[in-house]
Protein: Alanine racemase
Organism: Streptomyces coffeae
Amino acid sequence: MGSSYEVSNRADGAHEDAPLAQARIDLAAISANVARLREAAGSAETMAVVKADGYGHGIVPSARAALAGGATWLGAARIHEALTLRASGITNRIRIMAWLLAPGDDWAAAVAADIELSAGAIWAVEAAEKAARAAGRPCLLHLKADTGMGRGGATSAEWPALLEAAARAEATRHIRVVGIWSHLADADAPGHPVADTQVENFRAAVAMARKAGLRPEVLHLANSAATLKLPRTHFDLVRPGIAVFGLSPVPETADAAALGLRPAMTLSARLISVKRVPAGQGVSYGHRYRTPRRTTLGVVPLGYADGIPRHASDTGPVLAAGERRTVAGTVCMDQFVVDLGDAPAEVGDEVVLFGPGDHGEPGAEDWARAAGTIGYEIVTRVGDRVPRVYTGSCAPPSRRSRSRARSAARSTGR
Ligand SMILES: *Cc1c(COP(=O)(O)O)cnc(C)c1O
């Protein structure tokens, strides 16, 4: 007790202005990743997908960095995400699309803010038409075909009726069908056997739309994996998400560096407790870990409430006291413990959970493997208690514009 009190005193003030934990976001990496994706996209345009708060990186700064890298479209799942982008000052020179729509959403606000929407069912065409009437301007609509994903979009059986409804709505001039689109189920799998069938089904769906008198200008199908690996899926526009943030969409076959990508997020925290304990000390809930010898335990103030997977108990990797180490015992709600051996350590020392690997720290992908999940989930779930700190040559938004974006996000119900 006495000694850890002393240790805390020693660190007092030394790191006063450094946050306890932070996610540093390298905006220059986001811009460079998008430039790399644009190159892979060839003549297709690039929509940077920034849903889910920019995969946990912060939606507005991420979007701005993606635009600086050459993205000409932004993609969001929900309407309120798209509205957050517009409210941050991204003008309608940049096309923004939102696709995960529900009947109770504010479709009229989306139309009024020049957000393009998706319809995969007749009710959505009707909602779009009604919203366009209310907003007093046409709704730009992308019809979604389910070409094999088995999630959203019209099945081939539903497609003819959807086309008919869309053509009828176009005649009222409230709707313009500007796109036909779909989503791939296995672009990330080696050999991707389903993708070829999906491309075939997509072409058939587009041909039927043309026959029904529709004139879509943009056909789009490709996610990150397909943007990088399947040129035949590019059509007019690609929709990369995870690769924008520098994680490999195909970690089994190629890491980020091999794909020319750089992870944009570094998650770190400062030790809040450092103490010597004897051999045989049980550590954390359930004593899942027991110290094999006299050692130093450090406490990291991040837990599952911050998105650190509890499944990474005993296995999650960190860079601490100069070495790669693993989580000792159970990940708690707000903290976890690391066994630091005999390495010198003090309260306030930085522990890096993951980053681009420049200093030997693990990657988000290593955490994904440790927890039996995918890198997407690791970065996206980093919680609200962890401040995002922006770095990189792409001018970060000022404090004022960030807080404006935050209040815009609040007023749109985020
Ligand atoms: C999330 C999403 C993407 C981006 O997928 P990544 O695998 O992150 O590149 C593209 N299109 C749709 C419809 C999505 O929901």
User: Anything to note?
Assistant: The chain has a mean pLDDT of 92. Residues 2-20+272-383 form a domain with the Lyase, Ornithine Decarboxylase; Chain A, domain 1 fold (CATH 2.40.37.10).
